[in-house]
């Protein structure tokens, strides 16, 4: 009885494709790009393909196609009659491959440089309480009306990222009966944000959270403080990069409409 085949879609982080693997061989063995030992490189590729048999067929076929190109170059180099250009000079069968490797290397280095620049830009922050393209995150409205803001979706995206990291951190199963003493009264966020005029990263208010429930209460309290205009939200560089700041003109005691559940 035939057993149905199982398809695995596995991504190799180190080698994104055949050119990435070839560049790894070149850098590892300190090979001169302009004098690539086709025989040895081809053997390395064939050995690597054998390790891809249980991986995604589309990914393996990409390496097989590239290995066949190397074998074709290898066969040309074994021919007694060499190809000549229009000037009578011998054509190196490896030239086209060398040009592609150099081009790939340039693009890879440029991508890494742009990635570093992006990381540096994300550490910067624009002045002002809001970017021009974002509407106000909330306004004081009648009871039962939700905060309406085009930027609320982005705030929730950032919140989901924090919750995912917390889920990974708390992934280890624990069988404990817990009584939650969290509330919506805002003291936890208020003490974590500091004084009026100070700024704090959105994700920082979740660093001390013990559980997902704790994080949810903090997030709900944050939304309430924003709606009552105790807080302003600054948008820094990069996606979902939010900064929180207390408003100077709201110094009276915070009154949240939802009563606490603390014992």
| N/C terminus separation | 64 Å
Low-confidence blocks of residues: 1-13, 128-135, 137-150, 253-263
What is the total tally of β strands? 3
Structural class designation? mainly alpha
Put simply, the count of helices is 7
* Order of adjacent strands in the largest pleated sheet: 1-3-2
Residue fraction in strands: under 5%
For the record, the count of structural domains works out to 2
Order of helices and strands: HHHHHHEHEE
Bulk shape: elongated
Helix content: 40-55%
Question: What's the mean pLDDT score?
Answer: 67
Q: Using only CA atoms, what is the Rg? A: 29 Å
Largest sheet data: 3 strands, antiparallel
Keywords:
single chain; 263 residues; mainly alpha; 2 domains; 3-stranded antiparallel β-sheet; 3 strands; 44% helix; elongated; disordered N terminus
Q: Secondary-structure map with pairings?
A:
Elements: H1 18-28, H2 38-50, H3 57-78, H4 95-122, H5 152-169, H6 187-193, E1 199-201, H7 212-227, E2 231-235, E3 242-246
Antiparallel strand pairs: 1-3, 2-3
Helix pairs in contact: 2-3
